Amino acid sequence: MTRIALFLSCLVLTLPMPVTHSGRSDSPAAPTFEAVQPELFVASGGQPNAWADFDGDGDLDLFIGFRQGQPNRLYRNDAGTFTEVASSAGVADLTDTRAAAWGDFDGDGDADLYVGFTRKSDAPGRVYRNDGGHFTDVAKTMGLEVVGESRQPVWIDYDRDGDVDLFLAYRDAPNMLFRNDGARFTSVAKELGLDDPRKTVGAVWFDMDQDGDLDLFVANQNGDHNALYRNDGARFIDVAGELGMDAAGRPPTSGSNGPSVADIDNDGDLDLFVAGYGNNFLYRADGPAKFTEVAGTLGVAGGDKATPSRWGDFDNDGRIDLYVSSYIDKPLNEHDFLYHNDGSRFTNVMPGNIAKYGATHGVQWADFDKDGDLDLALANNNPEGGHPLYRNMLPPNLAGRSIQVQVLDARGRYTQAGAEVRAYAAGTRKLLGMRLVDTGSGYCSQNMLPVHIGLPTEGRIDIEVTAMTPGGRTMTRVANLTPGKVRGRVLTVKVSSPKAVTRGSVQ
């Protein structure tokens, strides 16, 4: 059995007011979002965007990659005020950027960054090692210098050996998986069966069969079948066809893009949304490795050309909501969707001040100002769209009705992408919400940030973290928390392997 290590910081006390909700809202109101420093986030052409605390000051910072001609940007967050520092940090590439992923590949406790480019640039992807807030490209040294039409990169521990490996999806070449061997990475995709030659533009990892290791869903374009690779340890097996999840029979003009994972119905298992050209899919999990497609039934079939998707409970009602971009080639027809989870169906509640820009690629939810609700960062390809950051204006009593959980390993490292975090009513097995530590999100991006769980009531809760360890699915619990008393703070849970048990502490 593992034990609990729990660290809390940055106290802000707020007592939220009690509220209740039924299984479905009759007419959900449009949420209110306010632009943050609009004069700063004006450049158009943004594509991937991703959050991490790169300087270790306790605030989430934001990286945004741009099309060729605009330098990439890194926004340092200083207590809610942002400053652009990409050039001084060494990450202001001018190359057409299509992918970005934060992860601690060297296990030194800070956030490193992978940046991927287009094939036409002839530039290999960069692996930026974080050296105290300044970044050095070590891709060649680490055996990760690869040229291609880069799409979803993911830092995950696929083999459960305690360090993060790197998966790279490509639009124009077989996908790649690099095993972290310490001093260098070793290419292992071919021997493991993951060198998928189809036109991949999105990917997400999660334990779909609940057997204790991470499986991989791959979203493919140009009519190619999608794939769901079951991790059998020595090899990955594509089971998408037998599970009815390969989207067979599509024309070359159709295909899938940004997949994202969430527990949409609070039943404790992970469902999968897949944005696409032609139609979206929502696969509801009905037990381990059992899925039913329900996009049309639940109202998220969407527009003609959906690109990224991202889940987040923006109103803290305990039901996770969904942002999806969708467009029809011409700027006048561009539009995004913000789907509110009503319980039995989703309703589009997109605010007018966000809807008017459209054509979004990067989509990320994060509580950058530590008030307890999720704020929204977009990266927009519309010439007038910019890359805006919006503050969620949820009333304080509702904003504080949430919990944020950072999952680390026994040594305090961020190696647990794909871990599952569940909140229960204290002393019961009544599930209030479930989230996944990010394994690919938005547009070809990956964050290093706490999971956010909105809560339907103000009562005490228990937190349960399920991590993939050498001993299988290992659960770590933190009991009897009062969410209102930790608003603005992050609950950090250290997960130990059964082979390396550590004694927990509270500070």
Structure, described:
The chain has 507 residues and is mainly β. It is 4% helix and 41% strand. The strands form 9 sheets. It has a 5-stranded mixed beta sheet with strand order 10-9-8-7-33, with no helix packed on it. Strands 1-37-30-34 form a 4-stranded mixed beta sheet, with no helix packed on it. Strands 2-29-28-27 form a 4-stranded antiparallel beta sheet, with no helix packed on it. Strand 16 and strand 17 form a beta hairpin.
Low-confidence stretches: 1-25, 499-507
Radius of gyration: 21 Å
How large is the share of residues in beta strands? 35-45%
Structural class: mainly beta
In the sheet with the most strands, the strands line up as 10-9-8-7-33
Could you describe the largest sheet, including whether it forms a barrel?
A: 5 strands, mixed
**Number of separate helices:** 5
Fraction of helical residues: under 10%
Count of individual beta strands: 37
Q: Could you say which overall geometry the principal axes of the C-alpha atoms support?
A: globular
N-end to C-end Cα span? 22 Å
Average pLDDT figure: 90
